[in-house]
Amino acid sequence: MTETVAGTGGIEADVDVARANVLQVDGSDAGTRGLRLDGLSAVLGRHRWLLFALVPGVLVPLIVSLITGGLSIPHNDGWAYSRIAEHFARTGHISLLGWNRSALIGQFIVLGPLAASITIQQTYVLALGLIGLVCVYDLLRPSLGERNAGITALMVALWPGFGLLDTSFMTDVPAMTAMFLCMALGRRALERDSLVLFALASAAGFWGTTIRAQALAAPVALLAYAAFTQRRRTRVRLLAVAAIGVVFVLGFAVFNSWFEGLPGGDLPPYKLVPSLLDTGMESSLQTYFTVALPAAPAVFWVAKPHLWRRPAQITALVTAVLAILCLHDFGRRLFPGNYLAQDGAYAPASIGGGMNVLIPNGEYFVLVVIALVSGSLLAGLIVHKAARADRLVAAFTLAFTAGTIGTFLLSEFMYDRYLIEILPGLLAVALLPEPARSEERAAARFAMPAWAGLAARWTQRGTALVAGAVVAVLGLALLTSALVSDRARWNEAVSLQSKGVPAMRIDAGLEWLGMHAPNGVTNRNAPADTRPMSFFTNTPACYVVSESSKAWVYPWTEVKRTDYERYLIGGTAHLYVWATHAEGCDS
C-alpha cells in the first residue's frame, strides 16, 4: 500500500498561489483586478468537480427548501432535536424528550442562543453539509486527484436523501461532517508533523461523538493510524498520540456517563439480536448493496473487468452470485429504507403516509438491479486496486462499517442514512488510477478492432451517465415530495388550530405532534396501529391530516381534500382532513 506524499497541500494552497501572483504584478487597478479574477478563475477551474458536487448537495436543497418553506418547520425525527435545542437556547438547560437515541448535544451547543430558531438550526446543518463535502474532497484529493475526489463528493451529494438530511435538523450530516473534518485535519497534521492540527483533528472527532456515537470511528482510526504508521518524523506519534488518546478516552467516558444520566433519554437497547449470523449476513449485504447504488455512476464509468487479474474477476463473479441470491431473498427489501423507500422518505411518520407509492414496482426493481450490478463490479474494483489504497481512509471505512453493523447486531434500527460515510471509502479505492501494465496485459489477451473498443468505451460511459441520471432524479424526487408533503400537512394543521382545535387533538404526523406534545414521548413502544399519536398521548385525535384516501376501519368523515403538486412542479397528490368523531370532539 502506498502512502500519500507529504506537502501535497490543499485548496488554500491554490488560493495562496493566486494571491501571490496578484501581489507580484505592478500596474493599473484594472490590471490588478483582471489578474485577481484570472487567479480566482484558475482556482475555481481546478476545483470545478467540487463545485459540481455542491450543486445537488447544497444549492438545489436550499432552493427547494426556500420555495416550500421547509427550512422553517421540523422534519422526521428532527422535531425532538429542534425542541431540545430551542429549550437550551432559551434556558441554558438540556431537557430530553424521549426521542433522541443520538447523543445530539454537540450539534446544537455551538449555536448557543441562535438555536432558538428552527430556520437557523436547519440553515446551520446545510452549511455543515457544504463543509462535509469539502472535507471529503480534501481528504481524498492527495490520492485521487481533483477530478476523482470531486466525483466522490458528487456521489455523496447524490446519495438518495442527502438533500433532505442537510436541510433538516437531523444528526446525520453534522456527524458526517465532524468525521471527515477529523480525518482531513488529521491527514494534514501527519503530513506537516503538526501537533496543533492533530489536536484540532482529535477535537473534531470528539465533537462528532457528542452528536452521534458512530463518529467514534474517525478519531479511533486516526489515532491508530498515527500510532502504528512508520514515519521519519515521530513527534506526532508515540507520546503525543498516547496523551491525546488518553484525554479523548476520558472525555468520551465522562460525556457518555453524564449524557446517559440525563432524564428523558432514549438509550439504545444494547441487546444482542437472537440470530447473530443471520442478522450479520443480512445487514452486511443490505449495507453493501445500498451503498453500491449511489456509487453506481462512478463504478460504471471506471470498471473494466477485462483489465483485472484473476482474483478481482473471481471476486466480481462471486459477488454477482450473491447479488442474485439477494434479489431472490430480499427483492424490494434490499434497501433498509427510511429515506430510500417506495413510499417516499420517512413516510410512516404520518398516518397513511406509507400507503402512497412514490416509486412504482418497475422503477424500484431497476434501482435494485443497478445496485446489484454496481456492487458486483465494485467488489472487483476494490480487489483490483486494494494494494494501493489509502490506509488512513481504509482504516476509517473499516472501523465505521464494523461499528455500524455492530450496532445493528445490538438491536439498533437499520436505516439507509446511517451508511453514507462508507461511500467515500469505497470510491477512494475504486477511483484510483489503473495499475501499471493493466492496459498492456489486456491488449495481449484481448485483441479487438479499434471501432469495437470505441463502441465498448462509449457504451460504458453511456451506462454510467444513465445511472447518474437515475440516481439524481431519485434524490430530487425524494427531496421535493417530502418537503412539499411536510409543508402541506403542517399548513393544514395550522389552519385547524386557528379554528380553535387544540394542537394535540390534531394528528398531522410525527413532527406536528412532537413539537406540540407538552411532555414529549410518553410511550416509546406504542402500538403500531395507533402511531404516531400514541407515542405522545392516549387522548384520541379529533382530526387526522393524511395523504391516504382511505378511512380504514374507522368511522371517519372526510372534511377536506387539498390537491398539490407532489414534486413541486408536477405530479398531483392529495391531502385529506378526516374528522374522527372521537369522544370530546365537536366534529
TrEMBL record:
Q: Which residues cross the membrane?
A: 49-73, 122-140, 152-171, 195-226, 238-259, 285-302, 314-331, 364-383, 392-410, 464-484
InterPro entries in alphabetical order? RgtA/B/C-like
Q: Which UniProt keywords apply?
A: Glycosyltransferase, Membrane, Transferase, Transmembrane, Transmembrane helix
Single GO molecular-function term? glycosyltransferase activity
**Which is one Pfam family of this protein?**
PMT_2
Task: Determine if Glycosyltransferase is one of this entry's keywords.
Answer: yes
Has keyword Transmembrane? yes
This entry's Enzyme Commission designation comes to 2.4.-.-
The Glycosyltransferase RgtA/B/C/D-like domain is annotated at 127-258
Q: What is this protein called?
A: Glycosyltransferase family 39 protein
- Organism of origin is Actinospica durhamensis
